[in-house]
Amino acid sequence: MHALVATVVHHPEDARILHRQIRALLDAGHTVTYVAPFRECGVTPWKELHSVDVPRASGRERLSSLRAARAVLAEQAPGADLLLFHDPELLLALPPRRPVTVWDVHEDTAAALLTKAWVPRPLRRPLGMVVRSFERRAERRMRLLLAEEGYRSRFRCDHPVVPNTTEVPEAPAREPGDDRVVYLGQVSEARGAHELVELGRMLRPQGVRLEVIGGADVGVRPLLRRAQQEDVLHWYGFVPNDRALRICAGATAGLSLLHDTPNYRHSMPTKVVEYMAHGLPVVTTPNPMAQELVTGRPEGPAGLVVPFDDVPAAAEAVLRLRRDGELRRSLARTGHQITRTSFHWPVQARLFVKRLEAWVDEAADPVPVVPRQRGRQRQGAPVGD
Question: Which residues contact 272 (CB under 8 A, 6 or more apart)?
């Protein structure tokens, strides 16, 4: 099978797209052409891939990227058995002649628009309604994969879920230490950018360093740069997922300070699963799915839950873990056990590849021909001549 995989919004080394899904396709022996903004993100594509560079779509600068993507997809689609795309924006760039087409739904786009600083506030809800109409049209015209069980209610039909699980090592590389905490993932206001800076400022005099690993939305980059200049935190910027997880190893805790927004209420923060998989206690705000995973499992707790918008409570949780070595090691062991049992990506990888292969096989099967009837069929008469 030749899969054409496309994104113009995500970083080319996005963990779900590259390190999980594309890796799974390659390991299964399939050929992959990857359309992504390599040059703009300073990324050298894997040699195993056929790669095509396109401009990145960000903020309000999206039209030129979509035009380029439309031309590239029109050129590449006829030679592929499958088109797998990852951005709702690409619904506007799909060529009319294309193979089996699959949209991998990463987020609740309409809800996410409510927190996007680049979208004028009066337009956010109306644009959300437009997005919902595009979603309804999409499920009639193509296949969908969902990243969360909570996304099912947005659609009329039943679509398979490929959750954001991760590769869970047999044992964490290091036990959690007592001198630093980490945040892994894209940084934005809704993901707690201001809270992270304030937390770093509170922890630094206590001998605990905050490390932020991930790209940042345009609006919060100056905030992070100033905080780094003031030695409040260390901001790595975007780091490929495998390297980022190595940096996380041995930290006191992993942070997830998401706000209480519609986009996050039904989503499992991937970072929480990754922290647990690599032996880090979690400090999280009480988004329902994160709270359930961290404190509601029968295996026991894997971290501490703090109120929304309460930085002193988050600081106290970190300092509690720093003081109590047995607690943080116990939480780390439980978290690793939970993810090894229930969130190990190779299990999902096999199901993901089989699902795509089945859709391609279905499309390749000849359509059965039903003989036309001559005249009106008599009651009880056989169909056909």
Answer: 254, 256, 282, 284, 290, 293, 294, 303
Q: Same structural domain for residues 151 and 115?
A: yes
Question: Looking at the 3D structure of the chain, how many domains does it have?
Answer: 2
Residue 204 sits in a domain whose CATH number is 3.40.50.2000
> Within a 10 A sphere around the Cβ of 31, how many other Cβ atoms?
16
Token pair for 272: 């929480």
Burial 274-304 (b: 16+ CB within 10 A, else e): bbbbbbbbbbbbebebbeebbbebeeebbbb
Q: How big, in percent rounded to 5, are the helix, strand and coil portions of the chain?
A: 45, 15, 40
One domain for residues 87 and 199? no
Angstrom CA distances, 278 to 98, 127, 257, 269, 271, stand at 40, 39, 19, 15, 11
Same domain, 275 and 142: no
Q: Which helix (H) or strand (E) holds 362?
A: helix 345-364
Which DSSP symbol is given to 324? -
pLDDT in tens, 147-166: 888 788 888 888 999 998 99
pLDDT digits (tens, 9 = 90+) for 252-273: 999 999 999 887 887 888 999 9
Tell me the percentage of the chain whose pLDDT exceeds 70.
Answer: 88
pTM of the full predicted structure? 0.80
Pairwise CA distance, residues 327 & 333, whole Å: 10
User: What is the span of the domain harbouring residue 110?
Assistant: 2-165+347-364
pLDDT at 136 over 60: yes
Helix (H, G, I), strand (E, B) or coil at 112: helix
- In a shared domain, residues 334 and 354: no
